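call fold target=Cytochrome c-type biogenesis protein
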Amino acid sequence: MNCLPSFRLRRLIPAFLLGLSVLLAPALVLAVDDPSEMLPDAKQEARAEAIGSQLRCLVCQNESIEDSSAGLARDLRRVVREHVAKGETDRQVMDWMVARYGNFIRLSPPLSGGTLLLWGMPALALSIGLALAFFAYRRRATSPKAPPPLSDEEKARLAKLTKE
């Protein structure tokens, strides 16, 4: 008679383990790829992480190299840490990366003519579209209208001409 509670318990254990693994899966994503990547000096490591969080992973493109687990991101993290360990400033490390990979590597590119044009294009396109629509509407409104209906004299004359 006591088989019923143990049977239920045996059915709940796999469900509990599955739920626990689903809850713990995100923590595995946040794990460091390789602890040997980290610099021994905590201040230098914090600087390297701050610089890495500003650099785009060239594989993932929407993640920083600190958040990505791609092989190229790992290599870029190593390069950043090497430059920080040499004693270079944050600006020097960022300039080296931009010189090597272009402004695309920055998650927040600096304000320039190109970025202003990029951000301003939707507003410019909307303005041009509205102006074209306005002028097209005005042209249609001022275009000649349909001729007025024929008068009785004109109808009689037309009937006479068509009979001949």
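return ok
The chain has six helices and no strands. The mean pLDDT is 80.
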